[in-house]
Amino acid sequence: MGTKGTTYLGIDGGGTRCRARIEDENGRLLGGASSGPATTRIGVEKAWRSIMEATEAAAAQAGLAREDFSRMHAGIGLAGLGRRGAEAALKNIAHPFASAIFISDGMAACLGAHSGADGAIVVAGTGSVGVGLTGGREIRLAGYGFPVSDEGSGADIGLQVVRLALRAADRRGELTPLLSEVLGAFDHDPYQAVAWSEDARATDYAAFAPMVMRHANEGDPVGRRIVERAADAIGDLLGLFLARGIDRLALVGGLADAITPWLTPDLRARLRPPDADAVAGALLVARGRLDLPKPDLPKPDLPKLDLPERETDHEQASKSRG
To answer: pTM here?
Structure first.
């Protein structure tokens, strides 16, 4: 079964999973599916395989054949797009779509959260990042990748608790119920934890975040300190957007609901529920409905869109704190 009509594909490729959604010209959902991680941190080829796996599953649900991809316009939000060499590597991938526009997964989430209007989001998931859009200008804060950045993220929370568990194993710190449970994951053998850490990725560390949140909510002192520190980091990003005059704010990501109660009352009051998700933001891009930065990427027949200039450097972040 196939179709001759134009279709639109939205992709949210993140550090934990990749989600795909296909719509027709009228915005009717045709199919949706998900696959494994799609971040350039695992390699562009692996990320692309996840993208295509999710796309093909969504297409099968929609009753579309591979030949229909030539009439499909894709908006692809991809984690780690700003990593050195990522865009150049994407240029070498021959995609099957009528057009493909790549944006960061953070920008896709921001566009979806505010229906393409000016506003900002802070993502609290496996990683963390702040992304805002104001006056045609993209503002990006933090999100340089785990472990050098992504404070307040699930991966960062996991890293902190594993470190403290090892300290507790040496009796250099208190052994709370949380830390005992973490050590139990390694059979109470610090060297097993060390061996695990040699190959552990951000998603592996983030797997400890729900455990930390649970113990923190039950009053574990170490859990509370870790979560308070994470909430402070997320709150700092929200505060930086407020300082720039962006008051339309949303907190998104897998940890958003869990971390929100730990924010200050003022910040909680300023948050608004996101209009939609990152896939919806990617679909807006696929449809060419936004004045977004024009990516220097493969297909010559991409919709001609003017992308906002980006503020992503430390100087701009520092300036906002002044």
So the answer is: 0.80
